[in-house]
Design goal:
Blueprint: H1 3-13, E1 22-25, H2 35-50, E2 54-59, H3 69-81, E3 89-91, H4 96-108, E4 112-115, H5 119-126, H6 143-155, E5 164-167, E6 182-186, E7 200-202, H7 204-214, E8 219-223, H8 230-240, E9 246-250, H9 262-270, H10 285-291, H11 295-305, H12 316-330, E10 332-334, E11 336-337, E12 340-345, E13 354-359, E14 369-374, E15 377-381, E16 401-404, E17 409-417, E18 423-431, E19 448-449, E20 452-453, E21 458-465, E22 492-499, H13 505-511, E23 513-516, E24 520-524, E25 533-539
Parallel strand pairs: 1-2, 2-3, 8-9, 10-23, 12-18, 16-19, 21-25
Antiparallel strand pairs: 4-5, 5-6, 6-7, 11-22, 12-15, 13-14, 15-20, 16-17, 17-18, 21-22, 23-24, 24-25
Bound molecules: adenosine-5'-triphosphate and magnesium ion.
């Protein structure tokens, strides 16, 4: 049980909030969700589920300039894909009327004022935490004047940046957020939901807690950077005399070799360092999905990482471990040769084609078997043959034997090279008695390799990824450089390979998750066509 669950269980025991639990996930629709958000989603929806409560989805859409419905749609898709369903879908912008009334209420009680200072003057006046700030010359305006000015702000009489509404709290507070925080600013911008209805918009601090309150949220879970905002969250709830949810902070997820900021991800997309938000190298949920991560793997990762009170950095290999663990259970096995060299079985009949029985998933008996055509000429991996093999190399070499998976034991006899010295053909003989069901089928050899029939195999494009950032901490860079300079120039490699002929477009799109035997886990990319299947490498089989 994590510390948040401890707090919640204690609240339930004491009958707080009628012993009910109501959480929310509050993304700003200004970008696609990343693995850090997945952590927050699993936490908020997970807690609601565990305690028979509810979890809302609330779009924190108070900044019209950066927000868009494209992001709203992608966020909903990603949450559902992760396996969660919200109790209700809300928007902070649904509450603009109520928030406005609350602002007037605070003005009428002498707790808010219109400030004509520039943004610069306001920051300067706030000062530094170790000394008192300076009060604005407009701080002691009358209630009537404040009300009049605020209404005219709303009516659109003033240009952007000319005035703000501030809460009148304490310019000497050691907590900078208490030094008369801004509640409303003027912004003549169209909002993706409210259109041109408003030209003043509430700030995060004047919207978030109140939105929680309106929805009857009991536990408002957020990341540590909001800890310093909590006194203000509490202050607004108390000053407005409204339902007061409890804000609880946890450490945000940080991961090695990864950036986790929508702003930076947007830059990667805009400057074409990646092929869109769902590029399989991206830490976005849609990128991970396209890479071949399963929702189960991501949920399991979030669970394994746990909930911390202090910032830490998780190694990206933990995410990969979680992917392997789940894919091993669900991925359909298939044979693919990605760096092919031709193997010719000289004593195999020229026109014979045999159908070999192959197991679809040894971890799941219900997955059944399939037939793979076998013939005289096969593709095998170039790396499975070595001309000058030492004792530690167990695979194919001249005069040595290996088993061809689901088929025969073969013995290499000789090789053919081109003028440049590259191997073009590997010749061998096979032992007909070693196929499964035959007398020598149990004969042991040191290695088994996979293959694809030259005559039957299907061509496929395979995208192999390396880390998008070559360094553990991409944000840590020398002066004059940015995280962009830490991009790994070799993070994408495109290969052509051969896959089993039974893999049709329809089939791979249905199966989606594959294990290419001995090579790794692969995901059927939506770029696949009837003519050319495309696979993304998710992870290798072992670390
Ligand atoms: P970014 O800096 O990437 O834009 P954000 O925190 O501004 O992230 P929001 O849309 O405001 O993004 O986040 C929605 C919710 O997800 C918030 O409750 C936030 O605390 C949480 N969240 C964001 N990033 C992480 C993270 N790395 N780990 C855990 N939770 C996160
Ligand atoms: Mg944010």
């Amino acid at each position: 049980m994590n510390f948040i669950e401890q707090i919640i269980e204690e609240d339930i025991r004491q009958g707080k909030n009628d012993a009910k639990v109501h959480t929310r996930f509050p993304p700003e629709p200004n970008g696609y969700l990343h693995i850090g958000h997945a952590k927050s989603i699993c936490l908020n929806f997970g807690i609601a589920k565990k305690y028979n409560g509810k979890c809302n989805l609330r779009f924190d859409d108070t900044n019209p300039v950066k927000e868009d419905t494209e992001y709203v749609d992608s966020i909903k898709e990603d949450i559902q894909w992760l396996g969660f369903q919200w109790a209700a879908e809300f928007y902070a912008s649904d509450y603009f009327d109520q928030l406005y009334l609350w602002a007037e209420q605070l003005i009428s009680e002498g707790l808010a004022y219109v400030d004509d200072q520039t943004q610069e003057e306001i920051s300067k006046g706030r000062g530094v935490p170790t000394a008192s700030g300076i009060e604005s010359p407009y701080r002691n305006r009358s209630v009537e004047e404040n009300m009049d000015l605020f209404r005219r702000m709303r009516a659109g009489e003033f240009p952007d940046g000319s005035r703000v509404l501030r809460a009148k709290i304490d310019m000497a507070s050691p907590n900078m957020h208490f030094r008369d925080p801004i509640m409303y600013r003027i912004l003549h911008a169209s909002h993706h939901r409210t259109g041109d209805k408003w030209c003043i918009y509430p700030m995060y601090d004047f919207a978030h807690g109140q939105s929680d309150s309106i929805e009857g949220i009991t536990h408002s879970i957020c990341t540590l950077e909001f800890e310093v905002h909590r006194p203000l969250y509490d202050w607004f709830c108390e000053a407005l005399r409204i339902h007061h949810p409890q804000q609880i902070e946890f450490a945000r997820l940080n991961m090695t070799n990864t950036i986790m900021s929508k702003r930076k991800m947007l830059q990667l997309v805009k400057e074409h360092h990646v092929n869109g938000w769902d590029d399989p190298r991206m830490p976005t949920i849609c990128g991970l999905r396209r890479r071949g991560y399963t929702p189960e793997a991501i949920r399991n990762f979030a669970e394994t990482v746990g909930v911390a009170k202090r910032d830490n950095i998780i190694d990206v290999s933990l995410l990969e471990f979680c992917a392997r663990e789940h894919l091993n259970k669900v991925a359909t096995r298939t044979m693919a040769v990605l760096d092919p060299v031709k193997l010719i079985i000289d004593n195999y009949p020229d026109d014979l084609v045999e159908e070999m029985d192959a197991v679809n998933n040894p971890e799941d008996p219900e997955a059944g078997t399939r037939k793979v055509p076998f013939a005289k000429e096969l593709w095998i991996e170039r790396a499975d043959f070595r001309e000058n093999a030492d004792k530690k190399f167990y695979r194919l070499s001249i005069d040595r034997e290996v088993r061809l998976k689901y088929a025969y034991i073969i013995k290499c006899t000789h090789i053919v090279k081109d003028e440049a010295g590259n191997i073009t053909e590997i010749h061998c003989t096979y032992d007909p008695n070693t196929r499964s069901g035959m007398p020598d089928s149990n004969r042991k050899v040191k290695a088994t390799i996979h293959w694809a029939s030259v005559k039957h195999a299907k061509k496929a494009e395979v995208r192999i990824f390396d880390r998008l950032f070559a360094v553990p901490d991409p944000d840590n860079c020398e002066e004059g450089k940015t995280f962009i300079d830490n991009l790994n120039p070799d993070s994408l490699k495109i290969q052509e390979g051969w896959v089993e002929p039974e893999l049709t477009l329809e089939k791979v799109m249905k199966i989606k998750y594959f294990q290419f035997e001995r090579l790794g886990y692969f995901y059927a990319d939506p770029d696949s066509t009837e003519e050319k299947l495309v696979f993304n490498k998710t992870v290798s089989l072992k670390q």
